[in-house]
Write a structure and sequence with these properties.
The complex is a heterodimer of chains A (about 1250) and B (about 600). Chain A is mainly β. Chain A is built from 14 helices and 65 strands. Chain A starts with a helix and ends with a strand. Classes of the chains: A mainly beta (about 1250), B mainly alpha (about 600).
């Protein structure tokens, strides 16, 4: 049967979905040889040319005698070698289908023992392929408990049972089993994962050597083991070039943000990678227990991910779980980890100097005294606050009760504080513990292998006062594989994950208690009581609130079968049902605390008499003194008007059905033409529903339950469904492992589009050339061991857009207007304006890559360059005048282009002393440009700077002014009365009064002034007059007229890099892993990022408080004190170069030191492996934030609960933490 | 063929239309759907006390930019420069703070035009003609209302009476429609609504009388703009007539009356069936719908803004005369305890009766928007209850009061009389102003000695020496009545604009604008005579001398409270390139139109580039 008709036959069979047997004969490797007076080397070359074998030998062994004459057709390799080696005292051993080792014949040993039935002594030597002895290799008898370690020359000696089989093992080498013989010579081959490793790719596996797409794999052991990380996402940060993982908050139980290749793939789509667990989509990487993971692959380019279809447009993270077992033996592994967490960064907030700032800001703005919000400051009270520090600083503890007269006073209108409080101490618990346990059992019995995993994680949050602030996760997994007969293997597996987050039920997501850690001035009493009563402040509310509970459960059931039609052809069926449920219990209670916000009331004693105190000591006096005030106790709700219990439920059901068939076909002489065909389908259906129930008026505050509430009942709900269906095919072709080609085609349908736009074709192609397999590379193969060039192009459709884009929808809402029966008025919104011609977004990726390995594979280098185009991107159309009454409808109007590169290096070396070192380095970069935005029809000069998606704009570019310096007194003209002289300038045809400058060619900034109090003075920012017109202006805000603005930074993380250094020696292992971002700038938001953001609220970082311009501090970094009234820009604090936050950082993510107890010690306690370790996670961070309490990974306003978290203010969430941990790993 | 089979079978699984969304194509099926659509207009047009801390369009918090209030520190300024950008397509409640009206936003126009279009094009068969006329009337009422508000802020505005497609660039980029043309359309919409909206559509739903009440307000506004600002008497008469007709529709219905004491109107949780309230906004803590306005009237929260002396002086004495010509004893004694007894009852009902430093700029504290009972805590030395603090307030607001209809009516009548209409007769005064003056007094007011003001006598109008001589004594008194009735409510700044009287807000001309109430520190607030206040508190005594407290002159601290921090506003009348009457639009909008080959004209009095 020739190859052509075989292929046809195959295709027909696939379509009919029927099975029959075909026989394909294994090809034995033979050579045709015809040499005269040849050297041994020439013989070996002939064999290498005609077979897949490569020879390993020490050069000194091979002589140059030209004495071989041999001629035979289709001779077996063994025959040829036997013939030519006999006279040379050399022998060979076939290690694999690729490798033959030639070595000296062993010298005849001492007289052999003959007794067949007695125990015998075996001696031997263990060497590696280069002939170097292996020291410390383990030699043990299979099925028995005896074993030894090789000595410094690689020799061993062992007494065994007759007919024993010895197992040789050594770290980094493949295990080898040999029949025991008198004097053994064992050659062990390196476990050369990097080349022979099988990589999981879309619906199948591929040898790494044969990959043509941009696929990255993760060394699961090195990356995830023995780290105090709660989930895989956190573990993968920095591990894969081109995969950017951000952990924007320290909120326990939250997902990290994962982006593959650039920060944005589409404006309306989600730009998120598809995360697949055993080929089934999962919504969160949190669901997977890191211990269950067998392998992780990341498919980065379209050619490798397109087989997954429309959800894979922005890359795929493929996770496979452990299943089956190689050995017959029952293996039980246990590991644990205990860690303690502390804020990763010191939170240094201003104290008394923050009060000074508020005061100075009030003066500078010409405001009336007193300054400050609910707690007031004037010059007198400030002096007293300084005095308080002298008298009581260090003596009054941070949580000592607040005392009227000593700590604060009330003048009938305003409250003045003297004591400063420590919000950080009051709210943050230090060194909170986290513990994890993992147990796995695996084994094989006959043709059935099994795997059971159990995991437990309990992580504590940072809140000092909360009743419960923690996160627990329980994982269970089970898998069974059974080979029923030669043709059919069936498998079943299930995983279960239960994530339970408990947190204090206080505040809203737009202002939770953590915001208040950084919000009010240090005069706000926090963490203290008055007369035994708690006060209204965040640490009290966190402690007094009931515990809210967010529980996410996930389970799936997989049933699958593989039908091996023959050795080269199989069909796989997999069906998965999974269900995720979210159950969120929350409640609102009323609090009872002293009100510090508003006016206090007269302090009365128990009999109702006014209390008097001595104003100097704060002590209660019987005679004299001043009448005292206290904070009135009051029941109140925080952010609410009623107490209630609420329950939110969501359930998502998915059914995933995959069928695919793979057929291997080798054609031609020696089977150099290797084909692999794959054809399949994938069907996903999803439905979800959700309900929220709420009942007011709790009977029991402490136990919020529906039966224990007596008020109104509210219910709301929603449901929806969707489906995707895809058919796919793939052809791989390899010629002699040198020329590789792959083509994919997928036809996708999605329920999100109308029927005429539902189906699309998406092709992709890739090719590779393994040039190291070419003969011309032979001479340098020991230096340049491996080399491959790759190229790919592919197209994928994206459907990650709302499913109602093509429909004019009226949104349902409940009005705040109550109807006659006090119910919300139900309302329907304006029909949305739509473009009915809306269609798929096409994502096209071009990828060029190279993989090289050097020095016998010890050093590896991999490089990729790519260009990803998002075409027909769905964006709002060209902006129209507001007379339209709504925003322009979205359509396929835009294009976006991301270009980037990725480079990684790895190095492994083992010294003769047994010291093994390894290192990996990776760096990647990506930038995105809007190649066609909504304004593409507008001439370039008229496009607005304010439009982030303007045509031709680089994504993330920040336009702003260039800071020159701060104005000093010498910049202004002073009159005889020592005040700055006024002058009138004509700006845009209107006369403006401003402070007169002394420069010969003054540059006035009247555009930001109001002619009244907002006038630039010493200590304010002086900008650079880029356009040289004598004024600092915003221009008309277009490309053509940007005024004095230009690009001053970019918010995209650039040059993400990481490196890992590891070493192990005599059981000790040590590794350091660092990760960082080379370049990223943002114009922040809120009080931690913007100096003068809200001087009235009062809290500012120590960095601002210590370094703002005053007459006695003219070389300060920050301008004079100002109050922007809660705005991120204004007056002198325009978006500008100097005050951009530099978010570049380098983090030592992990340092681990471990010790593996030698096996001989373990054999007595039935353990096969035992390791203990200590690990430091996130311990050191180097950034350029000048000491601001902002984590360099912070994303303003992002949290697991909200995208407008804590009013969008940068860095105001739960502190990011570092941890110190230790643990053990045991295998039975 | 197999493939075809596959794909048709597969389309079924992909057929999963959205289950829970309402779609335009299938929405317009019955009257209830139209009602649900129109429900959105309520929280936008009838804001009341606002929601939570959002005080946009809410009294007391956000109507203090006028000649009634004084602010500690510099007074709020009129806009002095053209913004770079102005406009929005948001459906949230937005406003131009110094114009107290909507911003350059046509989202509600689009919403209402779609409603009118769908009723017309898709519902003629499903709605009865009564239903059709009613909902068409509701639609046209809200459209008229929104255009009246836009014209009030911007003057000329582009007028659309249909949904404009995003491809109809000539319409979208069209220049402003002349105000008269816009308002003629508004006039027609209003007329239609008054004739077709149901007389009763259920409690708290818009009915013909609610429609007519709002029309009386906006027709009066437009008429006065025409008379005083545009000097177009013909157009003025057209709208004064409409105001009169609309008001009379309400007055003749017999459904409304003046029967509730003043404070009860603003501090009750439910007055939906009250005869004084034509439309009432309700709040309910269990529904999470609360506001924060009472919290600024609770005598507990300090406030920077309060009534100024100009407003205090404008309150009429109980004999119906201004304070200078009144024959009431001690009419010129401005001690608060005396004002309470000698002035119109609305004075006592609007302000706290003792001077208090909690009202920092003037020592007079507004208590109009809180029930009297909520202030009982002051007697016990405790604190206000939680429902009168922060944003937890649940008192409702009379969005439209019958008293306003009466005042709109009498003002329109009086203005018509100056434009050739029939003269105002005593009967007209009795039906309106005197009816309001006869409003019942509550027991607490009576206990304080508050008396009703003598009815206005057309033949014996006060001869107020402070009268603006450009208006007649009758109109002057009608305007005074309005000022007393609506103090710290919505209308004063709009009134000044439509009368073209913004100069009343010039702090350089009228020093009373920066002065507070009369305070005798030694007898009324002795605890403020303390070291910390040396050099800070200041009064203007009976002889007009400014006296600053020096620690020992406590006995001289007896006069109008006038802290030095109360600073006047910058000039705004006759400033080049500034027109305080109408709002400018953004330079970006103007240049965008220009770039596209269209023209958008800047508001009159403002330049088309930044200034």
């Amino acid at each position: 049967m020739n190859g052509h008709s075989k292929t046809k036959y195959f295709a027909v069979l696939m379509l009919l979905w029927c099975f029959c047997c075909m026989k394909v004969y294994a090809q034995e490797q033979t050579v045709t040889i015809n040499l005269k007076n040849a050297s041994l080397k020439q013989v070996l070359n002939v064999i290498e040319k005609q077979t897949t074998f490569r020879f390993s030998y020490r050069d000194v062994m091979i002589d140059n005698r030209k004495d071989i004459t041999i001629s035979k057709r289709n001779a077996s390799v063994a025959w040829v070698l036997n013939t030519v080696l006999t006279d040379r005292n050399l022998e060979y051993s076939i290690i694999s289908s690729k490798s033959i080792v030639i070595s000296d014949k062993p010298r005849p040993k001492a007289k052999a023992e003959t007794e067949e039935n007695q125990k015998r002594k075996i001696t031997g030597i263990v060497k590696d392929v280069s002939g170097e002895p292996i020291i410390g290799a383990s030699v043990r008898e299979k099925g028995a408990s005896n074993g030894v370690i090789t000595d410094i020359e690689g020799h061993f000696s062992l007494t065994t049972n007759p007919k024993a089989v010895l197992v040789f093992s050594y770290v980094g080498y493949l295990n080898r089993e040999e029949k025991a013989s008198k004097s053994m010579k064992v050659i062990m081959q390196e476990d050369n994962k990097t080349l022979n490793e099988v990589v999981v790719v879309g619906y199948g596996t591929q040898k790494r050597i044969n990959l043509t797409g941009a696929v990255a794999t993760v060394d699961v052991g090195k990356t995830l083991e023995s780290r105090p990380i709660a989930d895989i996402g956190r573990g993968l940060q920095g591990a894969i070039p081109g995969v950017n993982i951000t952990i924007p908050t320290g909120e326990i139980g939250s997902d990290p943000l994962i982006k593959i290749r650039g920060q944005i793939g589409s404006i309306n789509g989600n730009s998120q990678p598809l995360i697949l667990l055993d080929n089934v989509e999962i919504p969160s990487i949190q669901m997977v227990n890191p211990e269950d993971v067998q392998s992780i692959s990341v498919l980065k380019d379209a050619a490798s991910s397109s087989i997954y279809g429309s959800k894979a447009a922005f890359g795929v993270v493929l996770i496979t779980t452990k299943s089956g077992s190689r050995s017959e033996k029952l293996e039980i592994s246990y590991s644990n980890n205990i860690s303690w967490q502390n804020p990763a960064k010191q939170i240094n907030m201003g104290g008394i100097d923050a009060l000074q700032y508020t005061l100075d800001a009030q003066d500078n703005r010409g405001g009336t005294m007193p300054a400050g919000g609910f707690w007031r400051i004037n010059r007198d009270s400030f002096a007293k606050a300084i005095e308080w520090q002298k008298l009581y600083g260090g003596k009054v503890k941070w949580n000592d009760p607040v005392v009227y007269g000593r700590d604060w006073t009330f003048d009938g209108v305003d409250k003045y504080g003297y004591r400063t409080y420590d919000a950080v101490k009051s709210m943050i618990k230090n060194w909170t513990p986290t513990i994890s346990h993992n147990l796995s059992v695996s084994g094989k019995s006959g043709k059935t292998s099994y795997n059971v995993g159990l995991g437990y994680l309990s992580q504590s949050g940072m809140s000092r006062t909360a009743k419960d602030d923690d996160y627990k996760r329980y994982n269970a997994s089970v898998s069974l594989i059974s080979e029923i007969n030669k043709y059919v293997t069936i498998r079943a597996s299930s995983i279960y994950s239960d994530r339970n987050k408990r947190y204090p039920g206080v505040g809203t997501t737009s202002a939770d208690p953590w915001l208040y850690l950084y919000r009010w001035s240090p005069l706000f009493p926090i963490g203290v009581k008055e007369n035994g009563n708690p006060l209204r402040e965040p640490s009290y509310e966190m402690g007094a609130a009931n515990t809210d509970n967010l529980q996410n459960k996930y389970y799936n059931v997989n049933l699958g079968a593989t039908v091996n039609i023959n050795k080269n052809w199989d069909v796989k069926f997999d069906y998965t049902y999974d269900r995720q449920t979210t159950d969120k219990n929350s409640s609102v209670v009323f609090y009872n605390a002293g009100q510090t916000w508003y006016a206090p009331t007269a302090w009365k004693d128990n009999d109702g008499y006014q209390v008097y105190i001595d104003p100097t000591t704060g002590k209660v006096v019987d005679t004299g003194g001043i009448p005292a005030y206290s904070f009135p106790m009051q029941e109140y709700y925080s952010n609410n008007t009623v107490n209630y219990v609420q329950n939110y439920n969501k359930a998502v059901d998915d059914n995933t059905f995959n069928v695919y068939s793979t057929y291997n076909l080798n054609l031609g002489r020696e089977g150099q033409h290797a084909f692999k065909f794959m054809l399949g389908m994938n069907r996903v259906t999803k439905k979800w529903s959700e309900y929220t129930g709420k009942k007011t008026n709790l009977i029991d505050q402490e136990n919020p339950q529906f039966p224990l509430a007596s008020g109104d009942q509210f219910i709301n709900g929603d449901r929806n469904w969707e489906a995707q269906l895809g058919f796919f095919g793939r052809i791989n072709y390899a010629y002699a492992d040198k020329y590789l080609f792959e083509a994919n085609l997928r036809r996708d349908g999605s329920s999100k589009f109308p029927s005429n736009l539902r189906w699309r074709w998406f092709p992709s192609f890739s090719a590779g050339w393994v040039f190291s397999n070419e003969t011309f590379m032979k001479p340098i193969e020991k230096i340049w061991s491996f080399g491959k060039l790759r190229a790919s192009w592919g197209s994928i459709g994206d459907q990650s857009v709302p499913n109602t884009l093509y429909k004019s929808v009226l949104d349902y809402d409940e009005s705040t207007w109550l109807n006659a029966s006090n119910n919300y008025l139900v309302e329907f919104g304006t029909p949305s304006l739509i473009d009915k011609k809306i269609s798929w977004q096409r994502i096209e990726t071009l990828d060029l890559g190279a993989d090289f390995r050097f020095f016998r594979n010890q050093l590896g280098l991999s490089f990729d360059w790519y260009q990803r185009d998002t075409k027909d991107m769905i964006i709002p159309g060209e902006s129209l005048p507001v007379t339209l009454g709504t925003s322009a409808p979205v359509g396929n109007y835009g294009n976006l282009r991301t270009r980037g590169w990725e480079l990684s290096l790895d190095f492994n070396h083992r010294f003769a002393t047994g010291l093994e070192i390894n290192a990996t380095v990776s760096i990647s970069d990506a930038t995105t440009e809007i190649t066609k935005g909504a304004d593409y029809q507008t001439p370039w000069k008229d496009r607005y700077l304010s439009n982030s998606y303007s045509t031709g704009r680089r994504y993330g570019n920040i336009y702003g002014y260039v800071t020159d310096r701060l104005f000093q007194k010498s910049d202004f003209a002073y009159g005889s009365d020592n005040t700055i002289q006024k002058t009138t300038v004509v700006y845009n045809g209107t006369a403006r009064t401003t402070n007169q400058q002394t420069a010969k060619y003054p540059i006035y900034q009247v555009a930001f002034e109001d002619g009244n109090k907002l006038i630039f003075a010493p200590g304010d920012v002086k900008f650079v007059d880029l356009d040289g017109d004598g004024y600092i202006t915003p221009g008309s805000g277009t490309n053509g007229d940007p005024g004095d603005r230009k690009v001053i930074g970019n918010s995209t993380p650039r040059y993400e890099y990481s490196f890992r250094l590891g070493a192990n020696y005599k059981g000790f292992d040590f590794s350091v892993f660092c990760q960082g971002i080379g370049k990223r700038k943002i114009w922040g938001s809120g009080q931690l990022a913007i100096p003068g953001y809200n001087a009235k609220e009062g809290a500012i970082p120590e960095t601002f408080a210590k370094d703002y311009w005053r007459e006695d501090r003219t070389n300060a970094f920050y301008p004079r004190a100002w109050d922007l009234g809660g705005s991120d820009t204004g007056f002198g604090m325009q978006c500008q170069s100097k005050y951009l936050l530099n978010m570049a950082y380098l983090r030592i993510k992990n340092i681990t030191l471990g010790y593996t107890i030698p096996k001989q010690l373990l054999s007595h306690v039935l353990l096969s492996k035992a390791r203990i370790y200590i690990s430091l996670e996130n311990f050191f961070t180097f950034d350029k934030l000048r000491g601001l309490p902002v984590d360099p990974e912070a994303v303003s306003g992002y949290s697991m609960f909200s995208k407008d978290y804590n009013l969008g203010r940068t860095g105001t969430g739960t502190p990011v933490f570092k941890s110190l941990s230790c643990g053990i790993q045991l295998t039975l | 063929m197999l493939t075809a089979l596959f794909f048709t079978g597969c389309n079924d699984v992909l057929d999963r239309p959205s289950l829970t969304t309402a779609e335009d194509d299938t929405y317009w099926t019955n009257e209830e759907k139209v009602r649900l659509y129109a429900n959105s207009f309520y929280s936008y047009f009838f804001v009341g006390y606002g929601v939570g801390y959002d005080t946009t369009y809410a009294p007391n918090a956000n109507y203090t930019f006028n000649d009634d209030a004084v602010r500690l520190s510099t007074q709020a300024q009129f806009a002095r420069s053209v913004p770079t950008s102005k406009g929005s397509t948001s459906l949230s409640v937005m406003w131009e703070s110094d114009f107290t009206g909507p911003t350059w936003n046509f989202a509600w126009i689009r919403k209402v035009n779609i409603m009118i279009d769908r009723i017309k094009s898709r519902m003629t068969r499903t709605l009865s003609s009564e239903q059709y006329n009613h909902w068409m009337g509701i639609g046209r009422f809200f459209r008229g209302l929104e255009y009246a508000r836009l014209a009030n802020v911007f003057g000329n505005v582009p007028y659309y009476n249909r949904e404009i497609s995003n491809t109809d660039l000539n319409e979208l980029y069209k220049d402003r429609t002349p105000r008269s043309e816009v308002m003629d359309s508004v006039y027609n919409d209003f007329k239609y609504a008054m004739e077709n909206v149901r007389v009763d559509d259920g409690a708290q739903n818009v009915n013909r009388y609610i429609v007519a009440s709002f029309i009386s307000r906006w027709a009066l506004y437009e008429a006065s703009w025409q008379k005083y600002y545009y000097k177009n008497d013909t157009r003025a008469v057209k709208f004064y007539d409409l105001a009169v007709n609309a008001a009379e529709m309400v007055m003749n219905s017999g459904k409304y009356d003046i029967v509730t004491d003043f404070r009860t109107l603003f501090g009750s949780t439910d007055l939906t069936s009250n005869k004084d309230c034509i439309l009432y906004r309700k709040y309910d803590a269990t529904k999470g719908i609360t506001h924060s306005i009472a919290s600024s009237c609770n005598m507990f929260s300090p406030t920077d803004v309060g009534p100024n002396l100009d407003l205090i002086k404008s309150f009429i004495c109980v004999d119906g005369k201004d304070w200078q010509t009144s024959s009431v004893t001690k009419a010129n004694d401005f001690t608060l305890s005396n004002l309470v007894k000698t002035r119109d009852p609305r004075f006592e009902a609007s302000f706290w009766s003792d001077p208090t430093p909690k009202s920092k700029s003037c020592y007079l504290y507004v208590t109009k928007f809180i029930p009297r009972s909520a202030l009982n805590y002051l007697k016990d030395g405790t604190t206000p209850t939680a429902e009168f603090q922060s944003n937890k307030n649940i008192t409702g607001y009379p969005v439209m009061r019958y008293a306003e209809v009466l005042l709109n009516w009498i003002e329109a009548k009086a203005e018509l009389a100056t434009l050739g209409g029939s003269p105002v007769i005593q009967g007209d005064i009795d039906k309106s102003i005197n009816k309001i003056r006869n409003r019942p007094l509550d027991s607490e007011a009576i206990a304080k000695g508050v008396q009703k003001t003598t009815p206005m006598d057309l033949s014996n109008l006060p001869n107020d020496p402070d009268r603006d001589t450009s208006v007649s004594p009758l109109i002057w008194e009608i305007r005074r009545e309005r000022r007393m009735e609506f103090a710290f409510e919505y209308s004063r700044i709009v009134d000044l604009r439509r009368w073209k009287k913004l100069q009343y807000m010039d702090t350089d001309v009228n020093k009373d604008l920066l002065v507070g109430t009369w305070v005798n520190f030694q007898s009324e607030v002795p605890d403020q005579l303390k070291a910390g206040n040396i050099g800070k508190i200041r009064v203007i005594d009976a002889n007009g001398n400014a006296i600053v407290y020096n620690g020992s002159n406590g006995s001289k601290m007896n006069g109008f409270f006038c802290p030095a921090e109360n600073v006047g506003r910058l000039p705004f009348i006759n400033v080049p390139n500034v027109n305080p009457y109408l709002s400018p639009i953004g330079t970006t909008q103007i240049s965008t139109y220009k770039n596209k080959g269209y023209t958008l004209t800047q508001t009159e009095g403002w330049p088309s580039t930044t200034n």
